[in-house]
Amino acid sequence: MKKENNTLPSPISRRNFISNSGKIATGSALAGVALPMVHGQSSDITKIALVGCGGRGTGAASNALSVSAANGPTKLVAMADVFQTKMERSYNGLVNKHKDQVDVPEERRFIGFDGYEKAMDVLDPGVAFLFASPWGVSWVQ
Predict the structure, then answer these.
(1) From CA 30, how far away is CA 88, in angstroms rounded?
(2) I need a labelling partner for 5 at 20 to 30 A (CA). Which of 17, 65, 78, 124 fits?
(3) What is the pLDDT of residue 44?
(4) pLDDT tens, the chain, 141 aa long
């Protein structure tokens, strides 16, 4: 006797679920950046460092710089990635879109697995740090 399969097809695939989960995680990560004055800073400019300069990281940085009109001035001051080409593409895209808010000279663009440490050292305590590395990559030990 053949057993019937009474399960209904899922309206969402595993791939869609993972994609949507990533979008929700990114939105949640940016929610803290969008809150006005969540920390006491000595200056009125919120400084941001970006680790992971791929599409997701560049998009998160662009979003953080875009919300600055409502929450005060924001500047990107450091970037880190493992790949030089991703760093250059991200930097050029962000400068084209947010020229006055990107202040990342060559000496604050860090390449390599220890780049996140150098980017964090550029920041003062209590400032924003966007961490957008691929799943499965652990930078912090």
Answers:
(1) 23
(2) 17
(3) 75
(4) 565 655 555 566 655 555 555 555 555 555 444 444 444 444 678 888 998 898 888 998 898 888 765 667 889 999 999 999 999 999 999 999 999 999 999 999 999 988 888 988 888 776 666 777 665 444 443
- How many other C-beta atoms are found inside a 10 Å radius of the C-beta of residue 120? 17
Which pairs count as long-range contacts for 15-23, CB under 8 Å and 24+ apart, including other chains? 22/56
**In terms of DSSP bridges, do strands 74-81 and 109-111 run parallel, antiparallel, or are they unpaired?**
parallel
Can you tell me whether residue 18 is helix, strand or coil?
Answer: helix
Answer whether 115's CB lies under 8 Å from 80's CB. yes
Torsion angle in degrees (nearest 10) through CA of 118, 119, 122, 126: -120
Domains and CATH numbers, the chain: 44-141 (3.40.50.720)
Tokens of 134: 């691929």
Q: Residue 90 CB: number of other CB atoms within 10 A?
A: 25
Q: CB burial class (10 A; 0-12, 13-18, 19+) of residue 131? A: middle
Cα distance between residue 6 and residue 39, in whole Å: 54
- Across the beta sheet with 128-131, what order do the strands follow? 109-111, 74-81, 46-51, 128-131
